[in-house]
Write a structure and sequence with these properties.
The mean pLDDT is about 95. The N and C termini lie far apart (about 65 Å). The longest helix has 13 residues, at about 10-25. The chain is of the alpha/beta class and about 450 residues long. The chain has 3 domains: about 1-35 and about 75-110 and about 240-305, FAD/NAD(P)-binding domain (3-Layer(bba) Sandwich), CATH 3.50.50.60; about 110-235, 3-Layer(bba) Sandwich (FAD/NAD(P)-binding domain); about 330-440, Enolase-like, domain 1 (2-Layer Sandwich). Strands 1, 2, 3, 4, 5, 6 and 17 form a 7-stranded mixed beta sheet that branches. Strands 8-15-9-10-11 form a 5-stranded parallel beta sheet, covered by helices on one side. The chain has helices spanning about 10-25, 65-70, 130-140, 150-165, 185-195, 245, 295-305, 340-345, 395-405, 410-415, 435-440; strands at about 1-10, 30-35, 70-75, 80, 85-90, 95-105, 105-110, 120-125, 145-150, 165-170, 200-205, 205-210, 215-220, 225-230, 230-235, 240, 270-275, 280, 290, 325-330, 330-335, 350-360, 370-380, 385-390. This is FAD-dependent pyridine nucleotide-disulphide oxidoreductase. Belongs to the class-III pyridine nucleotide-disulfide oxidoreductase family. Pfam families: Pyr_redox_2, Pyr_redox_dim. Keywords: FAD, Flavoprotein. GO terms for molecular function: oxidoreductase activity.
Length: about 450
């Protein structure tokens, strides 16, 4: 099998890499190789437990789109290859030749080294439909569920499983929830939302053992407390799938990610990489980042695919911004850039502005929410370093707007004097617009 471009991986990065390649290089013969028949929408996985109701409702549904676009699809696993000969070997024994290769192999869940982690009904949260169907069924039949890990996946899974009527306990080793993306004041808001829905939240606690004989029966904490559990869900982060890259002799970083340049080119000619398997660097600190987001993955894929045959699209941003948003209980949470805590740890001298206002005006409309904005600026230059937002559904797009601002070096004065459009049914009042008011606090 001979192709001009081969994409290994069928998640968001692989999907976008293939379609972007077709857009820029329509005459090229393209093949996507992926391991599973059905791909999950990664960010939708926590919602299979209640809001979506099933694993099937989270399918990405991309397989027919490849065919209609003239992109070939092979359900198989690449197990080896020879970059000098530009050949790949699939698990089925098929040999595939390529001119350009894009590796988009994604990530897999971390499994912590806790005694009892191998007991029956202890699960991680992978992007694999068959595994998730089993987890879904086990949760349906459970009474007590313990979630280990208070990052985005942990809080979203806890929130959703609680909605299905289970007793849910969330255990986080750090002192607050969402500790990578939010300062403790926003972590406390997330805690209150979960606790208002009767999720038991334990922060600053460590699970020392998962209890049971063959099947899980509970977890033991470092405090000596034991918590009953029919199911335990490990939401303890992800690791890059870089095994294929290593077999191909590509450079891999100390953190296990594939090393690329600004245009997603690897250490071997004509091999690119994109998505969770790639080493990113922080936009503000320049340090290696463990960033794993679908939004970042598709950005990588667009850059890689558009530049396969020469640098068509020039990359202007200098690193990756950690732009996140989620919904916990009745509130949306969003963050971008670095937190106040991390900024201080990195040696930045910072000033912080906070403002709160209804996201409708007047605030008597039925769907009104309080919109809380926290902005972290460099003390001298007043350049925006990070932001955290809590409120209604507008939070997601507000964070995206702020993300662009940080990329462009926006300052407190820029936000204070920004030209805005407002409407009673859509935004906060112009008189108390939170972004402008939070910026005003530091001027």
């Amino acid at each position: 099998m001979k192709y001009d471009v081969v994409v290994v991986g069928g998640g968001p990065a692989g999907l976008v890499a293939a379609f972007t390649t077709k857009r820029f290089f329509g005459d090229k013969k393209i093949l996507v190789i992926k391991k599973t028949e059905k791909e999950m929408v990664p960010c939708g996985i926590p919602y299979i437990f209640h809001t979506l109701g099933s694993v099937e409702n989270d399918y990405m549904g991309i397989e027919d789109r490849f065919k209609s676009a003239g992109i070939d699809l092979l359900i198989d696993e690449v197990v080896d290859g020879n970059p000098d000969e530009k050949k790949l070997l699939a698990k089925s024994g098929k040999e595939i030749s390529y001119d350009k290769l894009i590796i988009a192999t994604g990530s897999s869940p971390n499994t912590p080294k806790i005694p009892g982690v191998d007991l029956k009904d202890v699960f991680t949260v992978p992007k694999e439909a068959d595994y998730l169907k089993l987890l879904h069924e086990k949760v349906k039949g459970a009474k007590d569920v313990v979630i280990i890990g208070g990052g985005f996946i942990g809080v979203e899974v806890a929130d959703e499983i609680k909605k299905s009527g289970k007793n849910v306990t969330l255990v986080e080793i750090m002192d607050s929830l969402l500790p990578v993306s939010f300062d403790p004041d926003f972590g406390e808001l997330a805690r209150k939302e979960l606790e208002s829905d009767n999720v038991k939240v334990l922060t600053g606690r460590k699970v020392t053992e998962i209890l049971g004989t063959e099947k899980v029966e509970g977890v033991k904490l470092d405090s000596g407390e034991t918590i009953p559990a029919d199911v335990v869900v490990l939401a303890t982060g992800y690791r890059p799938n870089s095994e294929l890259a290593k077999k191909l002799g590509l450079k891999v970083t100390e953190l296990g990610f594939i090393e690329t340049d600004e245009y997603m080119r690897t250490s071997k000619p004509d091999i690119f990489a994109a998505g969770d398997c790639v080493q990113h660097k922080d936009f503000l600190t320049g340090k290696p980042s463990r960033l794993m987001l679908a939004s970042a993955a598709v950005f990588d894929a667009r850059i890689a695919a558009s530049n396969l045959y020469g640098l068509k699209v020039i990359r202007t941003n200098k690193g990756s911004l950690n732009a996140y948003s989620t919904v916990i209980g009745s509130k949306a949470f969003g963050s971008v850039g670095i937190t106040e805590r991390i900024a201080k740890e990195e040696g930045f001298e910072v000033v912080v502005g906070k403002a709160e206002a209804p996201d409708r005006h007047p605030g008597k409309f039925e769907d009104t929410s309080k919109l809380l904005v926290k902005l972290i600026f460099s003390e001298d230059s007043k350049i925006l370093l990070g932001a955290q937002v809590c409120g209604g559904k507008s939070v997601g797009e507000i964070v995206n707007l702020i993300s662009l601002g940080i990329q462009k070096g926006i300052t407190a004065n820029d936000l204070f004097t920004m030209q805005i459009g407002t409407h009673p049914l859509l935004t906060s009042a112009p008189t108390v617009y939170p972004l402008a008011k939070a910026a005003e606090m530091v001027l």
